[in-house]
Amino acid sequence: MILEPSIDKLQTKINSKYTLVTLAAKRARQIQDTKVHQVENPDSATYVGLALEEILEEKLIVHPDYVMPNE
What we know:
The protein is mainly α.
């Protein structure tokens, strides 16, 4: 089983693997809760896959100056 999109493609959009995983996980939970995503013709059937596709299509971005507050 090959995961799509590939980590190599995703790292051209977001350089840090940690940031990539964190962003995808948070976005996947949002998609699961709202059932709304920004990909027109998704290849993925999973929430994480949809989140990764959004990142690849630059529908999600990370602002470099943003710092997560403690929860």
